[in-house]
Amino acid sequence: MTVNDAISQLKDIIASSSHLVAFTGAGLSAESGIPTYRGEGGLWTKYDPAKYANIDYFHKDPSYYWSFFRDVRYPVLKKAQPNAAHYALVELEKRGTLIQVITQNIDGLHQEAGQEDVIELHGNTRRIICLDCGKEYTIDEVYGMLKHEHPPSCPCGGRLKPDVVFFGEPLPQLALEKARDAALDCDSFLVLGSSLVVTPAAHFPRLAKENGAALIIVNLDETPLDTIADLVIHGKAGEVLSGVIEYGGNSINWD
Ligand code: OAD
After folding, report:
1. What atom in ligand 1 is closest to the CA of residue 53?
2. Strand 251-253 relative to strand 246-248: parallel, antiparallel, unpaired?
3. Cα-to-centroid distance, 26 and ligand 1 (Å)
């Protein structure tokens, strides 16, 4: 099957779907300039997640994370804008086809694009919280603090932590429950830009498929669930969705 045939099949599935769920991973934001975690140039090939994204290590020595935040995470986030894939999902939500976005991404770009209903399974790195008093800080505030204090702390003396799920931490219970409900309630489950190797998040596509939904996977590389999917497209999420939903500037027209 050619990519064009696959895109045309995806168009048909979306057109006949009334309860579509989109499940997104780092590949969705790659076209916004945010590096993925795995694969060529992936963050975890340069930064050991056992030091930069592990809760025990963070408590032992938070300076690794905050250097990573200052030198890598912050500059990338400041520049990143939603891409065609984010806007296509907003359009599908407006049309009532898309009932839920479940994301593993922590960059906030779905919301930036205007998506209303987003389940963040792994939190959001744009929120930074004090572990003692709960005060919330923006990334700009903390970036400023880092010029004077590294690692940064709250005036109450508490330690600051990005509101993301580190390895070794449980996922937010409410998000898990909502994601499970959506996976059980949908007729099509569209995976976009995820390697599908991190659990429990990667259980949701299988759950949806086992419950009768059509499973579609759009990813540059192969995933462990390709063999059970109804349709697999190896391509860039933004390019593929642009083929399905014509996107021009901020307005999207169906062709
Ligand atoms: P990964 O980095 O594991 O996988 C991203 C996938 O996107 C890869 O399989 C690429 O082939 C694919 N890809 C790259 N560019 C793409 C594009 N333009 N269009 C489509 N696909 C593209 O990212 P996730 O699966 O999201 O967790 O990773 C899951 C979790 O692992 C993350 O949420 C993060 C990480 O450790 C935490 O931080 C808790």
Report:
1. 38
2. antiparallel
3. 4
- State the average pLDDT for the chain: 94
- What's the rounded mean pLDDT across residues 200-219? 98
Confidence of residue 71 (pLDDT cuts 50, 70, 90): very high
Query: Which pTM value belongs to this model?
Result: 0.95
Report residue 82 as tokens.
């939603």
Between these two residues, 155 and 247, which has the higher pLDDT value?
Answer: 155
- In the annotation, is 122 catalytic? yes
Distance from the CA of 148 to the center of ligand 1, in angstroms?
A: 34
Q: Catalytic one among 59, 122, 203, 234?
A: 122
Q: What is the pLDDT of residue 128?
A: 98
